[in-house]
Amino acid sequence: MNNHSLFDPAGPRTRRRHLILEIVTGAALAGLALLVLATLTKKGVFSADAWAPFAQPGLWKLLGQGLLHNIAAAAVGMVLSLAVGCLLAFGLVSTRTFLRRLSRVYTDVFSSIPLLLLLYFTSLVLPNYGLRLGDFWFLVIALTLYSGAVIGDLIRSGIVALPPGQSEAALALGFSQVGTLVRVLLPQALRSMSPALVSQLIILFKGTALAYVLGGYTELLRSATVIGQYFTQSLLQAQFVAAVGFLIVNVLLGVLADSLERRQRRLETQAPSPAGSDSLVLQTA
Fold it and tell me: What residue stretches are annotated with the ABC transmembrane type-1 domain (predicted)?
């Protein structure tokens, strides 16, 4: 594959100017980092007393339970979002105008509303209508409303990107419209969009931190805040540990998304061309 540059190659003077800008920017960032470290050191952030509470196993147990609660909410929310997203994708590619427009309205509305606002809606409005649930389910419902709309559009994109011959062949073999979507198009769309779905799971996992506003669900951020309130000299340290916990999970999910993307590209490269498939069929006949 040929890589074409959008601009002309930089000349000697431009390269020299870019090098100077890079050096100046790097020096400024290094100076800012040193200033921040010096300020934190002066405030005693790196002192042994500030980190002493973390020698207690109970604190790590509390943080671990909070992280597991984040993972549980993200996992349940992702499963429900996939179910809602598949239904929305079917509606978005439906031949029925009313169903297609209704699915588009849902997708546009709930993908545009901030997740925090949806969380306030589920936890404050739904109980007024008799829906008494725990904070875990209020969080999951909010995640599903938002992420289901995004995933529905992702799966729709995967279905639309498939060659039209896929559905035509399935219909010619006697599959119904629903059977073609469920048995032929959906598996291929999910496979091709798997890296994007994992990226959405990362967004979903980070969104679980918003459960902090509920107060009744002990997730990682809430656990770190409780530790900081009990050990006042270790508030920033507890928040730092919580941030590292989020970072580790997100990095692992990012690695999974990258591996799925590389695998998808490898499968597309190894797939036989239509001309090769036709010649193979002719040779077999």
Answer: 67-257
Cα(29)–Cα(252) distance, rounded to whole angstroms? 27
Q: Which domain holds residue 126?
A: 53-265
**Nearest-angstrom CA–CA distance, 151 and 198:** 10
Report yes or no: 221 and 212 within 8 Å, Cβ to Cβ.
yes
**What value, to the nearest 5°, has the Cα angle with vertex 265 and ends 262 and 270?**
125
CA nearest to 144, candidates 63, 87, 64, 99 = 87
In a domain, 5, yes or no: no
**Residue 48 located in a structural domain:** no
Q: Give the span between the Cα atoms of 257 and 261, in whole angstroms.
A: 6
pLDDT digits (tens, 9 = 90+) for 224-250: 999 988 888 888 899 999 999 999 999
> According to the model, what pLDDT value does residue 260 have?
85
The answer to whether residue 199 is domain-embedded is yes
Q: Give the residue ranges of DSSP H helices in the chain.
A: 12-42, 48-51, 57-92, 97-112, 115-120, 135-161, 164-172, 177-179, 186-192, 194-207, 220-230, 235-270, 274-284
* 234 in a structural domain: yes
pTM for this model (two decimals): 0.81
Nearest to 200 by CA among 142, 162, 134, 152: 152
DSSP classification of residue 52? G
Contact between residue 69 and residue 78 where contact means Cβ atoms under 8 Å apart: no
- Crossing angle between the packed helical segments 135-161 and 57-92, to the nearest 10 degrees: 40
